[in-house]
Amino acid sequence: MPQPTVVSEAPRANTPQLVSTTAVPRPHVDAVGELNGTIYAGGRFDRVAPAGASQPSLSRMNIFAFDAATGLISESFAPDLNGNVWAVEAVPGAVYVGGEFTTVDGVTKAGIAKLDPLTGKLDTMFRAPFKGRVNEIRMLDSAPTPRLLVGGSGYKKLAALDPAKGTDTGFIDLLIADAIPGAWGGVSVYNFAVSPDASQLVATGNFQTVNGQRRTRLFVVDLAGTEATLDPWYYPGFDKPCSSTSSRRIAYLSGVDYSPNGAFFTVAATGQVPLYKADIWPAGSAKYHTVCDAAGRFSLADDQRPVWINYTGGDSVWAVADTGAAVYVQGHFQWLDNPNGLASQCPAGETCASRKGIGAISPGTGKALAWNPGKPASQGGKDLFVTADGLWVGSDSVNFNGQPHRGIAFAPLAP
Prior knowledge:
The chain contains one helix and 35 strands. The protein has one helix at 247-250, and strands spanning 17-18, 28-35, 38-44, 47-49, 58-59, 63-67, 85-91, 94-99, 103-104, 107-108, 112-115, 134-140, 147-152, 158-161, 176-177, 188-194, 200-206, 209-210, 213-214, 218-222, 229-230, 253-258, 264-269, 294-299, 308-311, 316-322, 327-332, 335-336, 353-354, 358-361, 383-386, 390-394, 399-400, 403-404, 408-412. The strands form twelve sheets. It has a four-stranded antiparallel sheet, with no helix packed on it. Strand 24 (294-299) and strand 25 form a beta hairpin. It starts with 16 loop residues before the first strand and ends with a strand.
């Protein structure tokens, strides 16, 4: 969603926050959605508290709802999901949730569920074919027939479902295959974004081919026709490894978002630093530079060269949101503008931008903007959700800009 300016560093004071418990000592918000002024937050937690903790905390199992303006936690929306929620899509009449849960209010419902936005009641008529983890959900409502796009590790990895029944519409029928050797979790779609005009989709994940064509870690899909088709756009640099050999870092691309005009997209990446010095952009000499522990912006008109890459110098970037005024990034990092850093250090004599867990990058220059609220984290935040009023930040952080905001914070548009 486009915004005219960069959001404020000062978070709104009245948002609820998660509570650390014996069962969930490090709670986190991993997915945020909004409908008619109500925020729906999913993740891994079992209690939430009103802002300021002046009132008792409430039991909420991995999802809760609250008023965006007042922070008042909904008493009626309190479904019990028995596993981590990784995706939330709130639309008129429904809240779709995806994740690693296997039951909702005791009813078997693996990976994806449809809930009433007021009561949280499970819609038992929605029966999706997905089994296993669901990582992303988006409603494609510009088509003559609305379709619910779902990505994850089960079923076809990426599918378009009937929003009412959950059945596969057949609109997306791509063979996503060939797990990257050593990468965690098998073939799966980690994240995807839909272009502002709903004509295109870009997806990241653990795969090497789509319909038999080389598409390691990322592919683009055209959605404008009667059937989704694989777009020829592919940047060969995504074939290259980063330096990490950890199974959770090998398929290193994670979050992705389109620019408001749809001409660009930016990916977030872990993977540690580039394996070879020549792969570092812009100083390197390699033909295809790697996006490792960085955010990388690409033009849909050029699949041979990045627009820019902003490196952290050795820490993960998980989430990205492009508003036109800024490209917001968050994760587990200490720096931006740090292409030559190693082990999360800024080399002596270089000018790096100190950024704790969150930052903003200029869409034009690829350099860090002055915005710097600071949000120290453990694993780092996994979701950024843009509204007309500002930026919602879901994470495992306890503070935002020095103020207590465990799990979720809201940065309003600056006056």
